[in-house]
Amino acid sequence: MADAVKQFEGGVLAVDHVSFEAVPGEFVSIVGPSGCGKSTLLRLIAGLIPLSEGSISVNGLEVTEPRQDVALMFQRPTLLPWRTALQNALLPPKLGGKLDEAAERQAYELLELVGLSGFEHTYPRHLSGGMQQRVALARLLMVGVDVLLLDEPFAAVDQLTRERLNLELLRVHERMSATALLVTHNITEAILLADRVVVMTPRPGRIADVIEVPFGRPRAQEMVAEREFQELVLRAYSGLQVPLTDAADNQQAGVHGG
Amino acid sequence: MVGRRTFAARLRLALSPNRLARRLWPPLLFLAILIGLWELALAVDYVSESILPHPKDIVVSFAELTTSEFVWDDVAATLWESVAGFALGAALGLALAIPSGLSPVMRQMLNPYAVALQVTPRIAIAPLIIAWAGFGYNSKIWIAAIIAFFPVYVNALTGILTVDEDAREMFRSLGASRWQTFMHLMVPGSLPVMFAGLKTAAGLALVGAVVGEFISAERGLGVLVQQFSSQLAIADAFAVILMLMFLGLLLYGTMEWLERTTVFWLHDARLVARSRRRAAKARGGRPTGDGGVASKPRPTLAGRR
Question: Which residues is A61 bridged to in the sheet?
Fold first, then answer.
């Protein structure tokens, strides 16, 4: 992405000359305070809204409309309540006119991968919030994309479930070749999951810092307690330009409450 | 675990003396109080018996009416007028709501007139319709249709307009065509609200049919009520009103049943039953070996909230 600018009608500048690049297969977190244009950034990359200036390319092709090699995961699961978990996961091939036995087999496998075997024929109403988000993840993986865009995918579930789902997401990502872009306002989460963390400033959204995360994989929740991890957290906070006294509070919230 | 019980078992449970007694005593108590007051008013001559008959006279009239030969023609007439009127009104409502829901221009074009039709007391149009469409069934069908139209139109429109914005974006990001978005998202998504409108419309269609019969008709329960009232056969008139109530119940019950089968995802027992059926079908139809289908939901890590 090069020099991307998004100015909404009415003059709100959401994304201001943002440039960065992700290596194929990399996991990049974008972290920033509310209203820094993170979600806008993902929608731009997904091709759901048009860019004001600059350009965004995925796989060497400029993004102008929603594409089949990029998939966006929303904050809410947005499952269709009249379709079972399996049918929801099968929505991408159904809409693409590629609903066949191979697709069905893949859907079963993906549901198993996200820990939902036995729940294939359950309707969303009878699934917990975390399980619904897993179905959404399986549906996303069904698209078979090169780039996964994750917009605070587990914001709607409680903290413990969220931590577990995050690590599962990481495990799933490791088994695929896709590049993942995760948007979050939770610094701990951003660092724990990513190879690189892009820190953004409040509106208009600019890149304040890019942090390389030196930890290897697989990651574990306990890593957040390590001294090196804490130093990264502090560095991210300084990039966010939040007053330091508040930062201490925010960090507590980040570790314990989200 | 409701879904595990068979229909017969659930019916037996619902009709078990204990359960029946518990559910029936409050409305029955109210009925007893009402009849008590009614009889009291007659006993102290607060109202004359020629104006308000004894409740038992109404029951007798009702029994006589249902066993008479002529009444079923009237029932059939009113039923046909309301059902056909409802179908026509609902079809018109849907036919206009769908383009309104999809195109803002269509919405701007149609909405003022839909509202104008709604705020006009449509019963005032009824004599005109009879002048146009004659004294037969057709005029009553049109009156019923005009009254039934509005709730269907408004609810279907609301249903289409309130489809989840995130779901729309998801469909867009999956490259769905407009037709696919309509068929797989908007139609099913608007069904719950739409059915609320259809239920109201079914009741209103009956009102329309009876009003049409009041104005001018040869057959129908509305004609009967009018005849009996003018002859001061009050008990008989009450009996016809009871019949109309049962007719209304029939229409409402049918819509209620249709709603439950169509919008199955809002009804827990139906969902469980469907899940089971699908799982059983998948077990039968899929090659085994990869362990994708477990016979029972395994309470693994996924189960925690």
Answer: A58
